[in-house]
Protein 1
Amino acid sequence: MPHKGVARGETAVIAQMIVNGLLGGLIYVIMALGFTLIFGIMRIVNFAHGEFYMLGAVGVLVLFGNFGMNYFVAVVVAGLLTGALGVIAERVLFRSVVGEEMPGMIMSLGLSIILQSVVLLALGPEEQTVARPFSGIWRIAGAVVPWDRTVVSISAIIILVAFYIFLKFSRLGLAMQAVAQDPTTASLMGVESGTIYASAYGIACLLAGLGGALMAPIYTIGPYMGQSPMLKAFVVVVIGGLGSIPGAMLGGLLLGLTESVLATLMDSTTALIASFGVVLLVVLMRPNGLLGRTVR
Amino acid sequence: MKVRAVYALILLLAALPWFIGSRYIFHIATMITIMIPLVLGMHLMVRIGQLSLAHPAFWGLGAYASALLTMRLGMPPLLSLLVGAAVPSLVALAVGPIFLRIKGVFFVLLTFAFGEIVDLIFQEWTGLFGGNSGLYGIPKFSILGLRLTQIPHYYVLGLIAAILVYLLMRAIERSDVGAILESLNEDEMLSRSMGANALAWRVAAFVVSAFAAGISGGIYAFYIGFLSPDPFGFQTIVDLIVMVTVGGAGSVLGPVLGAIVTVPLPELLRDAREYQLMIYGVCLIGFMKFAKQGLISFIVDKRRGA
C-alpha cells in the first residue's frame, strides 16, 4: 500500500516505492522458494501452496488470537504444524504422482480445494483479523516503514538465511540439490528418494506456513487468502525459472518492486493487467525463466 | 458392448427430462448440454497434451459476441451464434502460433494469464460488456420465425449442438487428423519427421476447440439472457478440469460422461457450496490416486493403438 499522503518530494516517493516493494517481495520470495523446491525435486506444480500459507495464518489466528500464545512462538508452532501436514500430504497423495506433471497438478488442485472448504466450514465465510502485535512507524529517506511490516521482513530474512544455510551445508540440503539436478545418479549414490520428496514437500510447506503466519496480523484471514500469494509465487517462479532457487529470490524481489511501482503509477486493475502482460512476455521470450537452466 | 450400453444409458438420461417434466430438471439438463461442447473443446487440447486454461475465456468471448451481435447489430440469433463462435476462434488463430510453441506447465500458466486478462477486460470495459453489473436484455433465440421461450426449447437447442460437436470431435478422433493430433502428444519428434507440421496442427486444434467453446457460450448467453464476467473465471477452470478428470481423457466419450456427472452437482448442492467444492476436491484426488484415466477407463478397456 503506497502511503501517498505522507511521502513528500520525488525522492520520498521513490524511496517509498522501494520500501513497499521490498516489504512485499520478501514474502513472495518465501512462497516462491517452496514452490520452486517442490517443482525442482518432484516435478509437481503445487497449486495447494497458497492453502499452506493460509493454514499458517489460521494457526496464528487460533494460537495467538484465541489462546493468547506469544506471537513468535505461535508463528513457529503454526509453521511447524503446516510443515508436518505437508509431510503427510506428500506421503499419502503426492508420492504416487512424482514426475508426472499433469496428474501432479490436478492432485494439488484437489488438495487446495479440500483445504479451502475445510477452513470455510471451520471458520465460516467472514474474514477474520488478529490484533497487531506491533504498531507505529519509522522513517528512512523520507519513506514511511510500519513496524509490523519491519518485523515480518526481518523474520523473513532470518528464515531465508536459515534456508540457505540448510541447503548449502546440511547433508539433507545437499542431497535435495543432487536429486533436483539428477535423480538417477543421486539415487545411485545412495540418496533415498522417498525421504527427499517428503522433506522437500514438508520444508516447502513449512516455508509457506511461516509466510502465512507472519502475514496473519497484516491482512485479513479467510479460506481464500492463499490464492493470491500462490499466484504470485507461480509468477515469481516463472520469471525466475522453475526449479531455480536464486531465480526465486531475484524474481520475488523483482515482482515486489514492479508491483509497488505499478501500483503507484497506475490504478490497480491496469497494474494487474500489466503484470499479467509481463508474465506473458517472459514466458514467451524466456520460457526457462530469467535465471532458469535449460531442461534436458 | 459396454460402450453401447453407455450410449443407451446416455440416450435414456437425455430423454428423462420429458418423463419427469419438471422445469428444474430441464434446467439442469440444459446446463449439461451447454457444458458439453465447452468441455469437448478443452478435451481436444488435452488430447494434444496441452491443458488450456484459456477455454473459459473463449466461452465468455463466444457468449458476449453472440449476445452483442444480436443486441447491437440486430443480427438474427442463429447467425450471431455462429459468427459469435468464430470470434474466439479468430482470437485462438491470432494467439495460437505464439502460445502453442510453449508446452507443459508454461502453457498452462500462459493460458491462465491470458484468460485472466480477458476476464479483466470483461469487467473493466463497461461500455461494451456491461462490467460487473452485467449485460441485460439479451433477446430470446429464434430460428425460422420460431422463438425459443421455454426451457425445454433451449434443451433441444443445446442437445442438437452437443450432439453435433460430439460427432465432430469423434470424427476428428477417428480420422487421420486424429492420429496426427495424438502423435503430437505421444512423440512430436517422430510425427514431425514423418512430415506433419506440428505447430500448424496444434493451431488448428486450438481454433476448432475455441469454436466449440464459442458455440457453448452463445447458447449459454441466449438461454440465461444475462451475462456477467463472473462465470468466465477461475471457477469454470476448476469445473472443466474436474469434468475432464472424472470422465477421463482417453476417449471423446469421457468428457461427456464427466459433464453429465459433474454439472448437476452445484444444482443439487445449491445451498452448500462448500460441500460441493469438497466433493470436487475428493473426486480429483480420488481419480488421480486410483483411476488416472477416469470413468472412461472402466468402459473402454483396450487402449487404442498408439
Protein 2
Amino acid sequence: MSLNRTLTVSVIVVTALLSFSGCGGGGGLNDTPDPSTSTSWTQGVFADESQFKNLCQSPRSGTDLNGDAFPDIQGTTAHENHFLRSWSNNTYLWYSEIPDLNPNLYDSPTDYFALLKTSATTQSGSAKDNFHFYMDTAEYQQLTQSGVSVSYGIEWELVSSTPPRELYIRYIEPGSPADAIALGLSRGAQITHIDGVDVENANTQAGVNTLNAGLFPSESGESHTFTVLDVGSVQPRDVVIQASEVTYDPVPIVNTFASGQVGYIFFNDHNFVSEDRLYEEMTAMSEAGVTDLILDLRYNGGGLLYIASQLAYMVAGDTATSGKTFEEIRFNDKYPTVNPVTGQALQPTPFYSTISQYSDNYTQGTALPTLNLSRVFILSTDSTCSASEAIINGLRGIDIEVILVGTTTCGKPYGFYPTDNCGTTYFTIQFDGINDKGEGGYSDGFSPINTVATPGVLITGCSVNDDLTSTLGEISDPLVSAALSYRTNGSCPVAATSPKRTYSPTLKNKAEAEGLILDLPLRLNQKIYLDPNR
Amino acid sequence: MALLRHFINLIVMNRLVLLLFCCGSLASCKISLPANARPALVVNLNEQSQHELKQVISKALNERNVTLAKQVFVDSHRLLIQRKTIMGPDGLPIQTRVDEEPIIFELYKAGDSCYIKRVDNQSNEVYLIQSIECRPR
C-alpha cells in the first residue's frame, strides 16, 4: 500500500502546520463570530462552537505568522469559555463524561478548560485522561529542521518531577556537545546540581526555573554547569556543557547477535528523516538473513504514524500485511464515519509498503525491504509511547507475536488536533487508534506478562528493569540479554535487585504511593518538566 | 585572459540582474528558478551563510522561528521542517501520533548562483542565497 492515501487524509493537519490559526474551524468569511452572541448557559444545551470561535477577551492585534490578520474579535472570557465547552462537547472522545459546568462562573479559560475532561480512572486506577494540555500558540508554532534540536545531545531520565528528584543521563547522542571526550560524560551519570541548584530538593519556583533552564536550553551557545556523579564514583565534579543545534540519528545503534541470526535496531524517533535510516538498516538486516529482530523502542516517544506503519510492514512482510489495517482511528460516537476536524471520511491506515515522497535518498514508491517475521522482540519502558505502541498494537492485530521485554509502555492510544483560540492552543483527546482486530484502548500501556505492579495489557515477554549503567544494545544490556535468553530457552531472567543508578519504575511507583508526585501541570512549554511542589 | 574576464563579468552581471529584481531584502526576493538549475549541496557552510539561510527561511515562513542544523544542505539538497517537539510534564513528546506534512525547501545551483525553492506548497517560491557556495548534488 503506498503512502499517498494517508497524506491525503492528513490534509487538515498540513493546514495546521502551515497556518498559524490552526485547525478547528472558524475564521472564514461566512462564520465570522458575532460579538453579541449570547453567553447564557442552559445545562445540556450546546451551541455550535463556531459561534464563539475567535471571540476573545484580549484579541491579538497585527498579523499572524502567515502574514494574515489575526481572526480575533473583541469578546469576553465567557465567549472563550463557551467555545471550549461547545468544542469539547463536539469533539472530545469521552464528551459524555465531561461535567457540564456553567462557563460564566470561571474567569480564566484555561482554568475552565482544565475541567473539561473525564474524571474516570483506568483499571489500574490511573486517570483515564492524562493528556489534557494547553500552551501559547506562538510557542506551539515554533519550527525545526526534522531531527534537529537545540540541546546538549542528552536525553534525561527524571525520577519524579517533584522533590525528592533523581536525574540521570540515559542517552548521549554521538557527536553532540555532551559526547565531547573532554567532558567524560556517560549514560547512567547522575546530575546532582544544575547551576548550583540542588536537583533533588529544590522547591522554590526560582530554583525550579534554574533547573529547567539548564535542562532545556533555548539558544545555541547557551552554557550551564552540571554537577555530575559519574557511574561508580562518589566524588561529584562540575561540567560545563554548551548547547548547540544537534542533529539526532533516529537509528543510532544497530547490532547483530547469535552469529548474525538476530538483528538489533535502536529506534529513537518517528520523524521524517527516520524513513531513510530505517530503510537502510532493515535492508541490511534483510540481506543478512536475520531470522529474529530485537526492536528497541525503550525511549521512543512516538511521532509520525506512517513511519510506524512502514516499520511494522518491514517486520511482518507483504503476505501478513496485505489488505490489513495497521491502525484505524475512532472519534466519539457523533462521528462514526467522518473526521469531525477535517470533515473527511474516516479511512484506516494500512501497512505502508513503499517509500514516501519525503525520502531524501530513495524514489517515492520504492518497495520497502521485509524480514517476513512471525514474531518480533520489542524492548520497552514507560517512555515507549504512542506511535511506538501503535507498532505493538498494529502487529498484534495481524497475529505477529510481539514479545515485550522491559517495563510497561506509556499507554497512549490517543491523539488530538491541537486547536488555537485567542492565542492559546488546546490539546484535548479526540480520537483513539485500533488495530485490524478492533483492539485498542490500552490506557495502561502494554506490559510483559510477568509484570507485578499495575500492569497494562499483558502480552508475552519478560519484565526487566532498564539499567542506565549498561551499554545500550550490547549483550550486557539487561533488556537485550533477556530478549536473547527468552529466544533461546523461552524463559525470563530472575528480576535483579535495582542498583542505585538503575532507573526503576518501582522507585517511581514508590514516590507516587507516598504522594510525592502531585497533579501534573496542565500548561505546557518547553521547560515544564519540573515542579517545585512536594 | 580577456575571455576569462568577460566570463567573470557575465557571472557578476547575472547576479546583479538577479539582485536588481530583489526588493530590498532577501526574503522578498521572489524569483524564478533558472531552467538549468540542478539539485545542489552546500560547500563550505560558514557562520555567515548559515545565518543567511536561516534568515531567508525564517522570512519565507513569515518570521517563524526555525532551528536549522549546522550542516544544513551539506549532506542533502532537501530541508524538511516540522513542528518543534513539545514535551509534556511526563517528559514525553505531546504530539506523538501525528501525520503532519513537512515544510520542504530544496537547494539548487544554476550557473554560479545558489537558490532555495519551497516545494511543499503551490507557491514554489524561490530565493537567491548570496553567501553560500554550492555544487551539483
